[in-house]
Amino acid sequence: MDFHLDSLLHLPFVTVLTCQQQEGFILLTLDFINEGISCPHCQTYTDNLHQIRPILVRDLSILGQGVYLKVPRRQFICSQCGKYPTEILNFIDRRRNYTKRYEEHIYEKVKELTVEQVSKNEQLSPEQVQNIFQRIAKQKKKDWGKPERLGLDEFSRQKGQGNLVTVLSNLDEGSLLEVIDSHKSEEIIEVLKQAPISIRENIKEVCVDMWGGFKKVITEVFPNALVVIDRFHVMKLVHKALNHLRLKLKLKGLKNRYLLLKNKVNLTEEEKKDLGELLRGYPCLSIAYELKEELRNIYENTRTVKEGLKKLKKWLRLARVFFGKTAETLELHLQNICNYFLNRTSNGVMEGLNNKIKLILRQSYGFSNFKFMREKLLACLFK
Ligand SMILES: [Zn+2]
């Protein structure tokens, strides 16, 4: 029909016969330039046409309008082998109603937006969008490479409570490796053991929080790995204990909380003055605050595991008095906490990734389909 429309469409051996507007869509009727094909069974060339059955295929939108292609599916007769081969088209997979590039486009869109948004934009049903996404996601190869340091963490699927998923990440690359619909050690082990043993044996360190189940997982799945308790989880626990003390003293208000929990080195001169005034009448809180700062100092300035153990044991003597149960928990995990000082491995590199995980989990709230959620997380965050 028009040379420019052909080059705009940019499909091999294809020419546009007609272009019509129909029910809010553009319909392009196509024809093929090649007269025959090479028989896929015996490789003999044939142009002996048996029949044509046109199919309707969705393609990329043009100028904001959805596009359908009317594609003549041609079946030939091969005089050599006697078979009836149907022409193979490299821009549509067999039995699909979308071009490959359209499916790829939907896949990329779902990575950015929710299924509902894509469904609305593309005038597809949410099921169609999910179906395309999962199909393409399956085709993408996921090679773990040879990571040495991993992180294990858990997230709540519904903010606030329950429904925990476990997340495995590659700390060397800052990449997401696996998402498991469980927070039971047995079930986590079952999923992770599917990874090749050569990869699992290569892991040197796994960074986790203080949940007891992780230790079991690491022993079973990563036999050569050291357990490292994440530095930020330790600090979070101490912050919580300090904050608890503040509330017991009825020092309410977000500003008080902020002054106590923020790193001292990051406080402005005025904030330091305010903090001084806050602590003046409360010697207990004062000591607890200094303990929090001291722990941060230990983390910043310790170079070996042995040195860390020594400093933390000393720190715990006083911390036991002021932080009670929290200090007991830390004592229980002391060796693994100090494994941090070997290579300073922490889940800190995953912070940006973790925020994205939380966002996607929140977006897919109401989605009962875990499989889809997992594919989306991996599509967005696996490098
Ligand atoms: Zn043949």
UniProtKB/TrEMBL annotation:
Entry-linked InterPro entries: Transpos_ISL3 (IPR047951), Transposase_DDE (IPR002560), Transposase_HTH (IPR032877), Transposase_Znf (IPR029261)
The Transposase IS204/IS1001/IS1096/IS1165 helix-turn-helix domain extends over 87-137
Taking every annotated instance into account, which residue ranges of this chain make up the domain Transposase IS204/IS1001/IS1096/IS1165 DDE? 150-375
Q: Which domain of life is it from?
A: Bacteria
Q: Where is the Transposase IS204/IS1001/IS1096/IS1165 zinc-finger domain?
A: 37-81
Query: This protein is called what?
Result: Transposase IS204/IS1001/IS1096/IS1165 family protein
Organism, scientific name: Gloeothece citriformis (strain PCC 7424)
The taxonomy runs: Bacteria, Bacillati, Cyanobacteriota, Cyanophyceae, Oscillatoriophycideae
